[in-house]
Design a protein that fits this description.
Oligomer: single chain
CATH class: Alpha Beta
Structural class: alpha/beta
Helix content: 25-40%
Order of helices and strands: HHEEHEHEHEEHEEE
Mean pLDDT: 95
CATH superfamily: Vaccinia Virus protein VP39
Shape: globular
Distance between the termini: 52 Å
Number of helices: 6
Bound molecules: S-adenosyl-L-homocysteine
Length: about 230
Amino acid sequence: MSATDDEMTARREAMVREVAAAAVAFARKHGRGAISPRVQTALREVPRHLFVPPEHLSEAYLNQPLPIGFGQTISQPFIVALMTEILDLKPNDRVLEIGTGSGYQAAVLSRLVDTVFTIEISAPLAARARAAFDKLGIDNIQSRVGDGYQGWPEAAPFDAILVAAAPPEVPPALIAQLAPGGRLAIPVGAVAQQLILVEKRSDQSTVLREIIPVCFVPLTRQSSPPD
Ligand code: SAH
């Protein structure tokens, strides 16, 4: 590694400022999305360069997605920040993430809430993310290999669910596993995707809001559902 830890910290600070400025511009247009100081602190606390493959180290603090192998990507920091922000997390929330990928988003969530559950369909990616959490001493993330379409029923209900890959429709299991008052941030769509925020009311009804057009990898299924 050529860059020192101090240089990485300086680059990370610049990234947080860039993301915060982009979010202010976004919020002016859309009325929401400014990144709170709490979420900015979480972004400062997580060394993104430890979640990207060595060949992309020099790009770790650019505000862009990067390849992480297996045809997958680590999400753009602005999108990580925006999804985290709209979930309006409280310290006692139980949070589920679908699509661990590099583990970066889960690590950001782990700075904001007591317990994060994260599911990844690719075993090698899940193992790599676990190793990164262990290296950083992050001990409040429970991870498993599996198909996130089904959520994590044994650990439900969740106060917040973040889906980092796009299904054609909101998976019903995820709505079912939201606690009353819970929030679900999910990219939805096959070609043109929208980031959707679903809020579950105390009477179990749901409110859907479109947040922003996005471009995520597809949420794949382990097996096709029966016809
Ligand atoms: N949150 C990640 C970004 C992940 S990209 C990060 O911070 O790096 C999306 C991830 O979703 C990929 O790793 C992909 O393998 C995974 N994925 C796709 N379909 C899935 C499914 N049905 N269940 C769980 N994970 C899935």
